Input
Amino acid sequence: MRFIPAFIKIEFDELNEKLKEEFDKLGSESEDPIGQYIKLAKARGETRDTDPVLLELLVALHRKVDELSAYIKNQKKEFIPLKYKSETKGLGFDFFQIKDKILKKGTKYYGRFDLPVFPERKVPIIFEGYSEDIGKILHMHERDVKDYNAFITARERAIIREMKSKNG
Output
């Protein structure tokens, strides 16, 4: 097991049917209408002449407008309160380590990372206690897996650059 030092907030609770529903809902929520439209347009080849970065920024801007609209209408996204809160010490592609020794080995949990990607969002995961402070990721939505892995890779590159600069 190899961990990249990364400190992000995580909240979690023992998995139950209600929390599994939230996990499923948050996955389908990432397929919002604009996201679904873009996915279909890409599949039809309608975006091949479009700058992918510009397209992603435009989609993010659309989502921000939707968030502002919901805020003005006093519509707040409600999450189920979770029992435990901690912070990660390290992230790996299949495992993560938290600061507190509060996990039970073999117990399945539902959790939410505050992943600092663009756009920043809560990433739902289902994981199993591997030890008191290490969780093994069992399920994550496809888009979240890509962003989570990209975050780990970017973090690792930053650490390598930092080490190179110290060593001349």
User: Anything to note?
Assistant: The helical segments are 17-29, 33-43, 52-72, 142-167. The two ends are 29 Å apart (CA to CA). Residues 4-167 form one domain.
